[in-house]
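Forum: Protein Structure Q&A
Topic: Joint prediction for protein chains with partners

I've read a bunch of threads here and the consensus seems to be that you should model interacting components together rather than docking separate models afterwards. I'd like to see that in practice. Below is the full input, 758 residues plus whatever partners are listed. Could one of the regulars post the assembled result?
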Amino acid sequence: MFRTRRVGLAAGVACLAMTVAACGGGGSTQAEAGSGKGTITVWAHDGQPGEDAAIKQAVQEFNDAHTGVTVSLTLIPEKTYSQTINSTPASKLPDVFEFDGPSLASDVFADKLSPLTDLVSPQTLANQSSSATAQNTYQYKQYGVSVIDSGLGMYGNKKMLDAAGVKYPTSWKDSWTADDFQAALVKLAAKAPGHKALDVQENTFPGEWASYGFLPIVNSTGHRVVANNSAQDLDNPTVIAALEKFASWRDYIDANTDAQAFPSGRVALSWVGHWMYPTYSKALGNDLVTLPLPSFGEAGAKTGMGSWAWGISTSSKNGKAAGKFLDYLTSDKIVSAYTTADGAPPATNSVLTTSPLYKDGGPLHLFAEALQTPCGASVPSTSCVAVPRPVTPAYPVISQQFQNVIEDALKGGNVPSLVHKAASAINLAYQQNNNYGQ
Amino acid sequence: MAALDAPPRPLVRGRGRGRGRGRGREARAAGLMTLPAIAGLALFVVTPFVLAIWLSMHYVNMQSILPPRWVGLQQYVMLFTNPAVRGQFYRALLNNAVFTVVVVPLQTGLALALAVALNQRIRGTAVLRTLFFMPVVFPMALVAVVWKLIYSPDQLGMLNSVLHLVSFGQIGPIDWLGNPHTALAAIIIMSIWQGAGLQMVILLAGLQEINPALYEAASIDGANRWQQFRNVTLPGLRNTLIFVSTVTVILAFQLFDQIYILTQGGPQDSTTTVMFQAVTSAFTDGNIGQGAAITVIFFIIVLAITLIQRRLLREEREVQ
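Posted by a regular:
Agreed with the consensus. Here's the joint model:
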C-alpha cells in the first residue's frame, strides 16, 4: 500500500510536468481543422441509463452511416468525470469531450476547449436554444453545443397531496414560501407511512447535484454565491437564514438510500431535476404533478439550468471531423432521442417547440417556462426564474464548497460557520489564482 | 520502512565479518545486488519526495495555464494558520491520531485472540481461518461499499434494522456515517473488521513457530492455561507482535480508501484524514502545492514515528 501511493504520486508529478509543458500558449487555442475524415476519440459521462443508451446508439448510427468519420467512444463514470477532465493535460484529451456547463470557463482558462466557429455548421449554432448558447459562450466565443438543457423543480404525488389536504402551486409565480412549504411538509409527514415528506436525492451525495439542486435557495434570497471575484455575497445573514430553514427540514427528508422514496410512495414530494421524469411517470402515471420550488426570499422562486455540453479539445488534429459529429449530435433525431430517454429539455429551438413533454400543455412545460426566463449573470430578481451556476474558472472550488455546506447542513452542522468556512475557501481560491485573470 | 525488514540473522552477519579474504569481492557483489532496490527507491521514493518539496513551495493549479508560482513556505504557513484550511488540517491530524491509537491495540488484540482460538486442534478451524481471512482478500473499495449498506441511515440499513428488531423498535434509525459523533467510530469498526484477518494469519504463523515442548514443560511445572499464555505464548510471539503492530501503525496512517468511499471526510470534517486532505487539495481543489505540502508534513510525522518504533524494536532485541 505504501509503495502504491508513492507510485501514484510519481505519476501525478509526471503528468503535472506535462501539463505545464503543454500549456505554454495563451488561452483559446483553435483546434486544427484537419481533413474532416478518419477516427475521432470521444469522452462522455456515464450517468443516467437513458442518456447512456442514447449516446451509445447515436455513436453506433453515426458510424454505420459511413460519413468518413468513425467515432471511438469512452464512457467515464459521472462521479469522477469532471475531475478526470480537470486532471488530464490538454494534450491528452480526446478530440471531442463532454463537459458540465459550469466547468466551461475553467476548461477555457486551462486552454482545453477550442472555439467552435468554422468547425461546426452555422445552422447548428443558430438552432441552439438561447439558454444553451448563453451557457456555452464565454468572453464572446462559443465553446460548446448542447443536446439537452436541464429542468429543476418539485415532483408531487397528487394522491398523497390530496389525501393530506395540501394545496399546491402550479406556476413559478405563485410558488410556496418557505413557511407555507414547511406547513405542507408537516401535514404530509403526519399522513405518510414512514413520517417523511420530502426526498432531496440524498443518495446521490456527494457530487454536483448538491450544488445544482440547492444553489436556487441562495438565488431565491436575491443573492449570488459569487460576485466580483468574491464569495462575500454568500456569507450573508439572509442567505444563512434561508439555508438554515432548508436544513431544518431534515426530519421530514427520507434518506432515499434505495432511490425508491418517491416512486414507491414513501414521500409525497421529490426535489429533483428532469432526469427522474421517466422513472416517476412510469411509477405514478397520472398522479405525477410538476411543481415549482419554494421561494426563500425577496427574489421569488428560483430554479437551476444548464447541463452537459459537447466541445472540441484544443489538441484535436481533426476539428472538422469532430464538428461533423457535433452537428450530428445536435440534429433533431438525436435531441429527440435524448429527450425521450431521460425527460431532458431539448437544447435546440426546433425540438423545443415540438417536444410533447415541453410544448405548451406538456407535463414538463413548467421547466420550459423557467428556461424561457433566465436570469443570466445579473442579480436574481422576481423578473426571472432560471439561474445559471456561476460562470467562472473558480467553479470547481465553488461547487465543492457549496456541496459541503448543503451536505453538512442537512446532517445538522452549524450553518453560519459552514457558510463562513466555504466563503473563505472560495475567496482564497480567487486570491491564489490572481482572480483567474478576470 | 526499515522497521519492516526481516529480523537480522546474526549467523550470516557473523560469517561475513569473520572472513577477511574476498570481503572486497563480496562487497562489490552486494553493491551490485542492492542496485535494483536502490534504483527503485531513488525513482519511486526519493525523486517524488524531492519533487513534492519543490511543488510545496509553489502555487500550482492543475486547471490553469499559468506557470507554477514560487510562494516559499506560504503553503506550510497557511496549513497551520489560515482559517480556511487550518481547521480541516488540525482535524485531520487529530483523526489520524485517534484512529491509530484506537485501532492498533484493538486490532492487534483481536487478531491475537483469533489466532490463539484458531490454533487449537479442533474440527473446522481451517474453515474458520478462511472466513476470518476473507475480508483481507476483498479490496477495501468493495468492503467499504458493503459496509455503506450496513451503515445505511434509514430502517433499510442492516445495522439499524437489527437494532430495531432486538430493541423491539425502541432504537430508531441512526445515521451512523452522517453523525459527527458516530462516523469515525463506524469507520474504525469496519477497518478493524477488514484488517484483523491479516494480523491473525501472521500471528498464527508465529504461534506455530513456538516449540510445543515449552508448553509441555510448562504444564509439567503446573502452569495453567493463562500462565502458559503469559509466560510461553507472549514471549514467543514478541517479535511477531512488534512486526504486526508496526505494520498496523503504518497502515493506520495511510487511512484513505474507506474515507473516500464512505464519508468523503464528512460530516463536518469528523472523518477527514491527512491523506484524504492531501488528495482532495490536489485533485478536487486543483491546488497541487497545498497537497504536496501536506504530504511533506505527513512524511516527516510518519518518519518520526517509524524511527521511534525502530528504536523500541532494537531494545526488545537486546533484551532477548
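Residues 12-56 of chain B form one domain.
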